[in-house]
Write a structure and sequence with these properties.
This protein has about 400 residues and is of the alpha/beta class. It is about 35% helix and about 20% strand. Strand 11 and strand 12 form a beta hairpin. It starts with 9 loop residues before the first strand and ends with a helix. It comes from Podospora appendiculata. One of its GO terms (molecular function) is dephospho-CoA kinase activity.
Length: about 400
Amino acid sequence: MAVARDLLPSLLLLPFPPSPFSRPLLDAAYRPSLTAALSKLRSAKTASRLIVAVACPVLHGQFRRSKTRSWPEAQALIAGIYTLLSVISSQLAIATEIDGGPGSVDATVVLIDHSRATRFPEGSRPAIQTNNTIVVDLATFALAYHPWNYIFHVRSEPGLELYQTYLKLAEGKQTLLHEQLVPVEGGLALNVSPKDPAATPTQTPGQPVVCLGGTFDYLHPGHKLLLTAGALLLEVPEKDSGKFSEYIIGITGDELLKNKKFAELVQPWEVRARNVIVFLSRLLQLSDRGWKGGARPAIEERDGDFRAAFRDGTIRVQCVRIQDAFGPTVAVEKIDALVVSGETRSGGRAVNDKRVQQGWHELTVFEVDVLDAKEAEETEGPTRTENFAAKISSSAIRQRKAAQQGKSATKI
């Protein structure tokens, strides 16, 4: 069954980031394009979804099945773009959470392994091809991500080159009207000190079992960064190997959230778990049918244990209810890696202390960058960063919803 066009996600194709990049340089390069896309989508009468696809040579290795990634570099790029999305959305008064209601924009950042040197020979037939990471090439993206409401493309030489290559690869996947193809202004992208092609950043070994935890209430850009960073660590086995990688996500149980601000508006555990899996499906699900008629991923739901499988069963996601500070990290011995934020760094140390006491191996701990407005804006000082953090938190979203409900009650 066809889906109404305004219920489909939109695409923003962003050309290569500055090299090397920093948050101020990302701001200069991407702010105009992101602002234009968000400004158009916020006028929708429904909640909008936006896939921000960033082309960059993020993987290394000669052969498809032996690709590696620099996790610190990749997650830092994603953190910078989610910071920009959050800053712009805050300035434009756009809600950013999943299912945020009319005028909201639920954005997802996807890295596309592509460079200007990548060539698709004339007459070649693109195919969906996976490697041992979750990052896909441009051809795979074009074939698996469709159809779209709008396609925003950057009005610059690299932006137009990327756009034309994408359209060629996506040919036949969707009949697009002229009004759906929206050019947007690009920013200033400088290669301030070109990298030595022979010098690649330190590569991060893939992990068979990755774990992280959180509340994930009103899933917002900070949550999306954390979940994406964890997924980037997965070592994805080949389709017919009989093996699989596991992504275990501990989600705080309802009982532990009763003392939160506006606790009555905290989403039930089941809603939060479903939203986590729905978000991850945007990064992990690949099919030549695209969005499959708008269907959400198949989730096996049990009390406090939601599961889903992606990429022919090579990636298994499990959301479990947690009732303490440790969750699955001290209940599942086979976990290899733990992803934390700066706020939960001490929790990572406590987890490893506990595992050692149990006679288990320590987890490799990976710390994700923070969303920091100070690094993306000209105005400096702690107040701006603190205000920004407050605006994108789950507590702030609940406060906004409480205010909205108060207004509705007054009208009645």
